[in-house]
């Protein structure tokens, strides 16, 4: 069944990605314009195109140049009906249930839906439109009802349960045993054990949540599109050339040539708050960004949050759990919310203590240079940058001149070649359709054998209709149970495109995100599992592999060979490299606190009885109880916290980034201590074998112990962030 539950959540949950600059683009087939196509292509024809098996090279690729949304609703109806028919055949099989006729049979179902979800995901995340959003709102409850029919099919669950408790399981391979467990839990933990009215209520709640998740996401997107600040040349004080060029390009794209647009996305907001000398404009940009979904208008999300929390709490109550987080974490590495909270609370005091030091340093400069009396949230990035220059003689904009997207992409390919033996070759002949002119595609092969591994799609730039943030996904995963299938992986991000003819330059933090998302792609591409379900992720573990890949950005091999000045072509000077490494832990108070605040509020939301909850008040009171520094806000404030309220992928699980960071810091020390450093062949081989290729075929804790020889230790994380480590 490929875990239909997982596929559904991926459409609305958030993951991460990246890019290429404005050099000439190969001619490629693209997703047709939605409105005009809808008028000319009949719904029946469109549905047929959407459901068609993929053709062309590389075992077939998505037909982005052929499809339109005109037939999306009937296509889903056809695909869901076919999938339910497949399920009925398995559920009513007169033969006794066994691994092959039940578990493997389920893995083989739903291929039409899988292909359809690829297009649906692109229209949802990359090229959204008002027309699509209407369809999305219409389909969300229908899809939820469909999945409830499968999970609540009593005959089907009886067969899965029979296999789960059978003696046959003991004779299966470890990978097959895990597959049985995941399939059983996919039913048992999602309402299959309920009867009568409780089962119906469970399904009804899921439909209601599907509507609310979609509405939440679309409200945030509306605020991102509606709040754009247009500047005149006189209002550009302090902004580096690269930021000015990107703002000019953004304004031109919106029909405002001659002006400069600061869009309501992180990639536009962050550099503006870092460099702009216009304090009132910084405040305006800060307010627009951090009040997405919180403006008291038709797109306000606070009431939706309360509804979502109440429904989640009621639903897990039907299963006998005391709160949503207890249900969610049961099959995660943390196992229970108390363990996740304990980790976060162990780090929190050191984080806010560091913030106090950072604010004191900033205020000293702010008073002296600008006569300010206190540091406001819209000042933090601006004065942090001044402190960085004063303390480390490090100018972020100077660093940015060496961080060209194209070069960084080639650096990632180099790392993938050294660690995974992968080679990347761009496809420029138009044989692989894309959904937008910005998208480029590479074939991935084994460097030694030349064996085809898969494709890597890259959609790097921000645009209207594209959701904010960065994410990674797959259009097709590796399996072998019906013959070997190759991987179609994708990275997506929202970098501000450079001016025509100029490279796109990004910050060091954005470069780390670039590597991070590529880590997800490598996790997909390295897969060596047999069954589709085993490509699913454990949320507080799946970020580990991508976080770990960030470490290769600062290796000498990458810095010396790929970080060259965009004008002179000269390598980054050794003195600048030294400054970057010396300042590695700079601003860790801010970074750790803004993240932990979001993670702790998420967990608190899902460990209380939400009856009568006021989301805005709850956020404020929770942060006050934590002694949240007034100069910082949550990285993702509740009204736009898409990880948590646009779906259930990260709900009560945002802590997972830090849980994974413990693994990351510990694993990084394994490389740092190896004879060959971060390119040590022996450690790299263990990394691929135990931590990347197995995906979810092995329990994450066991997989990590196989790599490291022991469990991860939190002290490595504290050392990484420059926080005090308690003596034993």
Task: Compute the number of helices.
Answer: 31
Looking at CATH, which topology of the domain at 32-220 would you report? Neurolysin, domain 3
Q: Cα distance, first to last residue?
A: 49 Å
Helix content: 40-55%
Shape: globular
Strand order of the largest sheet: 3-4-5-7-6
> Which CATH C-level class of the domain at 32-220 is it?
Mainly Alpha
Computed over alpha carbons, the radius of gyration is 25 Å
Oligomer state equals single chain
Structural classification:
mainly alpha
Mean pLDDT: 93
According to DSSP, the number of beta strands is 7
Report the CATH architecture of the domain at 32-220.
Orthogonal Bundle
Low-confidence stretches: 3-29, 33-39
**Biggest sheet: strands, sense, closure?**
5 strands, mixed
Q: Tell me the strand percentage band.
A: 5-15%
Keywords, separated by commas or semicolons:
single chain, 728 residues, mainly alpha, Neurolysin, domain 3, two-stranded antiparallel sheet, 31 helices, 7 strands, disordered N terminus
Description:
The structure is a single chain. The protein has 728 residues and is mostly helical. 55% of the residues lie in helices and 6% in strands. Among the domains are: 32-220, Neurolysin, domain 3, CATH 1.10.1370.40; 227-290, no CATH class; 291-390 and 587-654, Neurolysin, domain 3, CATH 1.10.1370. The chain has helices at 4-12, 34-40, 43-51, 72-91, 99-107, 111-125, 130-151, 154-164, 168-171, 174-188, 196-226, 241-253, 266-275, 279-290, 302-318, 324-329, 337-370, 380-392, 396-400, 405-420, 508-525, 539-549, 556-562, 574-582, 588-605, 615-625, 642-645, 656-672, 681-692, 700-708, 715-720, and strands at residues 229-231, 260-262, 422-426, 440-446, 452-461, 471-476, 487-495. It has a five-stranded mixed beta sheet, sandwiched between helices. β4 (440-446) and β5 (452-461) form a beta hairpin. α17 packs across α18. The longest helix is centred in the middle third of the chain and has 34 residues, at 337-370. The radius of gyration is 25 Å and the shape is globular. Residues 3-29 and 33-39 have low confidence and may be disordered.
């Amino acid at each position: 069944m490929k875990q239909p539950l997982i596929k559904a959540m991926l459409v609305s949950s958030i993951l991460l990605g990246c890019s290429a600059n404005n050099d000439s683009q190969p001619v490629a087939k693209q997703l047709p314009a939605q409105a005009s196509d809808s008028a000319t292509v009949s719904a029946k024809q469109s549905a047929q195109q959407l459901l068609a098996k993929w053709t062309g090279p590389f075992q077939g690729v998505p037909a982005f140049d052929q499809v339109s949304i005109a037939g999306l609703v009937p296509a889903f109806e056809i695909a869901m009906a076919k999938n339910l028919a497949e399920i009925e055949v398995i559920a009513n099989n007169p033969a006794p249930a066994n691994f092959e006729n039940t578990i493997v049979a389920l893995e083989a179902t739903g291929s039409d839906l899988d292909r359809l979800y690829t297009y649906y995901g692109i229209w949802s995340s990359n090229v959204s439109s008002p027309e699509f959003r209407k369809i999305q709102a219409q389909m969300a409850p229908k899809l939820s009802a469909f999945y409830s029919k499968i999970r609540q099919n009593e005959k089907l669950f009886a067969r899965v349960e029979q296999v789960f408790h059978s003696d046959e399981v003991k004779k299966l391979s470890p990978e097959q045993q895990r597959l049985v467990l995941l399939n059983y839990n996919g039913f048992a933990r999602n309402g299959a054990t309920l009867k009568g009215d409780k089962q119906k209520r469970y399904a009804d709640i899921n439909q209601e949540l599907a509507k609310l998740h979609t509405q939440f996401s679309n409200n945030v997107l509306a605020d991102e599109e509606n709040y754009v600040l247009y500047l005149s040349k006189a209002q550009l004080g302090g902004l580096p050339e690269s930021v000015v060029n990107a703002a000019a390009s953004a304004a031109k794209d919106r029909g405002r040539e001659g002006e400069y647009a600061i869009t309501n996305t992180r990639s536009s907001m962050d550099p503006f708050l870092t460099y702009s000398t216009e304090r009132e404009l910084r405040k305006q940009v800060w307010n627009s960004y951090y009040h997405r979904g919180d403006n008291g208008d038709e797109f306000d999300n606070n009431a939706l949050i309360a509804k979502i929390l109440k429904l989640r709490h009621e639903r897990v109550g039907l299963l006998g759990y005391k709160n949503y987080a207890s249900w969610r974490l049961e099959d995660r590495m943390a196992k229970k919310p108390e363990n996740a909270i304990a980790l976060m609370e162990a780090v929190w005091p050191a984080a806010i203590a560091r913030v106090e030091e950072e604010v004191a340093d900033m205020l000293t400069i702010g008073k002296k240079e600008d006569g300010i009396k206190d540091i406001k949230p819209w000042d933090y990035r601006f004065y942090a940058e001044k402190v960085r220059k004063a303390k480390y003689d490090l100018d972020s904009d100077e660093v940015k001149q060496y961080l060209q997207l194209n070069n960084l992409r080639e650096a990632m390919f180099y790392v993938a070649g050294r660690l995974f033996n992968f080679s990347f070759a761009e496809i420029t002949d138009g044989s692989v359709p894309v959904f937008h002119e910005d998208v480029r595609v590479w074939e991935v092969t084994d460097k030694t054998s030349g064996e085809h591994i898969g494709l890597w799609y890259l959609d790097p730039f921000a645009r209207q209709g594209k959701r904010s943030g960065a994410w990674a996904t797959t259009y097709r995963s590796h399996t072998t149970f019906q013959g070997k299938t190759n991987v179609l992986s994708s990275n997506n991000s929202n970098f501000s495109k450079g001016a025509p003819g100029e490279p796109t330059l990004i910050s060091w933090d954005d470069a780390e995100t670039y590597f991070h998302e590529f880590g997800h792609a490598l996790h997909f591409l390295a897969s060596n599992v047999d069954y589709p379900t085993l490509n699913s992720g454990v949320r507080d573990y799946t970020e580990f592999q991508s976080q770990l890949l960030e470490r290769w950005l600062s290796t000498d091999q990458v810095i010396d060979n790929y970080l060259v000045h965009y004008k002179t072509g000269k390598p980054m000077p050794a003195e600048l490299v030294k400054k970057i490494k010396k300042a590695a832990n700079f601003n860790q108070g801010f970074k750790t606190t803004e993240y932990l605040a979001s993670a702790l509020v998420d967990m608190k939301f899902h460990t209380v009885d939400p009856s009568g909850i006021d989301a805005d008040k709850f956020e404020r009171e929770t942060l006050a109880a934590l002694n949240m520094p007034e100069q910082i806000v949550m990285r993702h404030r509740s009204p736009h916290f898409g990880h948590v309220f646009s779906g259930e992928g990260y709900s009560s699980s945002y802590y997972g980034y830090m849980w994974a960071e413990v693994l990351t810091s510990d694993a990084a020390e394994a490389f740092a201590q190896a004879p060959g450093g971060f390119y040590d062949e022996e450690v790299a081989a263990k990394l691929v074998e135990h931590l990347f290729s197995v995906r979810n075929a092995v329990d994450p804790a066991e997989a990590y112990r196989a790599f490291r020889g022991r469990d991860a230790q939190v002290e490595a994380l504290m050392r990484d962030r420059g926080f005090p480590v308690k003596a034993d």
